[in-house]
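Minimal example, chain plus manganese (II) ion.
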Amino acid sequence: MKKQSYLFSPRDIVSLAIDKSDQRFPVNRIFCVGRNYAQHSREMGDDPERDPPFFFCKDVSSVLNVTFSDVSEVSYPSGTNQYEYEAELVVALSKGGRNLSEKDALNAIFGYSIGLDMTRRDLQVQAKKKGRPWEIGKSFEQSAPLSPIKMVQHIGILDRGSIELKVDGITKQKSNLSCLTWSVTEVISRLSSMFELHAGDLIMTGTPENVGSVEIGETIDVSIEGIGGFQLKVIE
Ligand code: MN
């Protein structure tokens, strides 16, 4: 077959490192859960009892690969005065499908990454007020710093364990995966009723309470029990 020629080079495949593997995980889509810890729903002005979680997406160009070993760097984004962190468990799928049962969902989980759903909060709040889409607040370059993936076959299924975020050594967010309003398998199952999921999809499962902003020069330290942690310095 004749090799397809393109007008210009297609963008590089976005991928995550896989711990204890030479292969990389190619990223297909990035789904995010908007509200999945009751205390965070309250601080955002929502009623966690009444409102089910909802979904939005980040473009794959949002990915910033960070490592477990080095201090990584992220550039302070343009157009905001309120650049906020959200520490999140990220689930990596190696199988897809539609209308997955919770059992199918469990089998689709390849592994886990630690992620930050970095947000231009002032722009997101404006968008919410005006009923506009969220991309400007959520889906911009480097808005998804993601750690290498740890495989389920090595660390097991994570349904509890602490999730913690510090800024310059001071604890800002601290919760437990057991506090997720909707479990990982419930989230996957629900998502698959609305989208056809594919191998390579990532799901950022939502952040606990006490989100806050960071400034240039500050360092975020985020960790999830069972996975590890990473450090990320905000630069100009
Ligand atoms: Mn989030």
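The first strand starts at residue 15 and ends at 17. The chain has six helices and 18 strands.
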